[in-house]
Amino acid sequence: MKSTESSGLLELFISLFKQFFLRSKESVFWLVIFPTILFLILTTIFGNVEENVELKVKILGESKMLEKVFSDIKQFQTEFVTFTDEAEKLSKFKELNNELRSGKIHAYAVLPRNFDSEFSIATILQKTKLQRKVEVNIYYVPVRQESKLAGDILSSVFNSLGTKEIVPVETYKLSEGEFEYNEFIYPGVVGMAILSVFIFGFMSEVEYLYRRGMLRRFYTTPINIINILIFTALVNMIELILGIFVLSLFANLKGVDVGKYLPSMISHVPLACVLLTLLSLNVLIFSKNQPSRVFVFGQIYFQAQMFAGGFYFPLKFANPVVKNFARFLPLTYTVDAIRLANHLNAFEEGHVLVPIIYILLLGINLILFSKKLKVAEE
Length: 378
Description:
Largest sheet: 5 strands, mixed
Subcellular location: Membrane
Membrane topology: Multi-pass membrane protein
Distance between the termini: 35 Å
Protein name: ABC transporter
InterPro entries: ABC-2_transporter, ABC2_TM
Strand order of the largest sheet: 2-1-3-4-5
Number of domains: 2
Organism: Fervidobacterium pennivorans
């Protein structure tokens, strides 16, 4: 009897797998291949800043010598900002600081008054007891890869002018926490893959089963409706695993240390899958299985979670309103937990607790309103 039941469940799983995966070219592309394509696009655009970006740099002070030096650096658009007195210098300094923070420039340096003459005198006195120093201050934002690159190049330029004893360079990082974009974006694309599989995969497929009246036919058979829902979720999990596998292969080729993320992915991705499965079923209950309502919810939640949940940008440095809103989006904690392995996380706690709270609440709600899943389809 058990053997017959097991073979029947296996046949049911195989038929669902064929229906929702093998026969669906859209699923294969959007849920398995597209995450890898997105990763390659993002890392190609943002991962090689050194090769394809012009860096806007401003120098507060005058120097004919430096004008010639910076004119030979092809990646730099350099502008020298002059001042007449200390009050004007302070005003210009504040303007440059605001421009750097707003992203209008990538870095700036502050020179002492009469830099050229001071540098010449310091060079002459270098090996005497009357040594002098010409201090240069460099400001950049390390969390922005272009700004970090500009700051590094500025430091190299000033250090190449002479020994560090002559021109000691002081750097100021206006925002702490630098990251390698390829390493940062990988967990974000994994989160996007999880979201896509269950919002546009599982939820749409169960809605399709209801709309076609297929689930209603099983009510008169020995097959438990729960098994159909579980097997449909398993089919989507297989799609997700395949998608993450392909993504990881290409991420590894792009220099991402995938192995470092693997332990946290093994522990947190299944939690996210359970959470989104329960969320999808709850949406189907309260949308009364109407395709338009399911579609609207899917689009709103997908866009909100993907773009406000810190998938593609560091929440640690986000606007406080966005950061607080992201705390209510459950998949934010999954992606952040994966990044924790590489110290790229925005939150220090809640990575397990918050998803479990969502699972409990959604599970209780599903039990209370489970009869609505058996509403006959038109």
